[in-house]
Write a structure and sequence with these properties.
Elements lengths: L2 H4 L5 H29 L2 H28 L10 H9 L6 H14 L2 H11 L57
């Protein structure tokens, strides 16, 4: 581990992501346990119990990831957009809190300071210079655009006027055979 990096402070948004993930993990643990207990109370719910256990399992993954974010010295961990997406998908289980945490986590992961922190933490080079988009080839700049003559050549005749199209003939009504 780089001793140079361990002396640096975590950005506040990384700490916010860690606290939100921890809270969402605890909520998902209780949510899954309550849903499983409710499902086991009915005959039909017994068959649905595997679906109600999923928030509990996901809560454990959230707690592990939050612990990695809180560790001191920091562990080499990448931003977990997968956890954030699954937090958003928790709305399918009725958990609105986890959905809000997932949306906020995705927004915070896209912050430049957070991206730089995770890049330094994992030892990958961070792009410090912004990439300037190249204009498409179809747009020509005035320096490169060819110079066109102002008037058409004299030997060409102007285009003929468009011809009028004749009106479509009307169809005769169909004869219906009577029985």
């Amino acid at each position: 581990m780089n001793s140079q990096f361990t002396d640096q402070q975590k950005p506040s948004l990384v700490s916010v992501i860690a606290w939100m993930t921890l809270a969402s993990g605890i909520v998902n643990l209780f949510w899954g346990i309550a849903a499983s207990g409710t499902a086991l109370a009915t005959v039909v719910g017994i068959f649905c119990t595997p679906l109600t256990i999923l928030p509990t399992i996901f809560g454990v993954f959230e707690l592990i990831y939050a612990a990695k974010l809180f560790s001191n010295p920091p562990q080499a961990v990448k931003p977990s957009t997968n956890i954030a997406v699954f937090e958003i998908a928790c709305i399918l289980a009725g958990n609105v809190f986890s959905m809000a945490v997932g949306i906020l986590s995705l927004v915070f992961y896209n912050d430049a300071v957070v991206k730089d922190y995770f890049a330094r933490l994992n030892g990958t080079p961070a792009s410090s210079t912004p990439v300037v988009p190249v204009p498409p080839a179809s747009l020509l700049t005035p320096e490169v655009a060819p110079v066109l003559p102002a008037a058409p050549p004299a030997e060409e005749s102007p285009a003929p006027p468009p011809e009028e199209t004749p009106a479509k003939p009307k169809r005769a009504p169909r004869k219906v055979a009577r029985k």
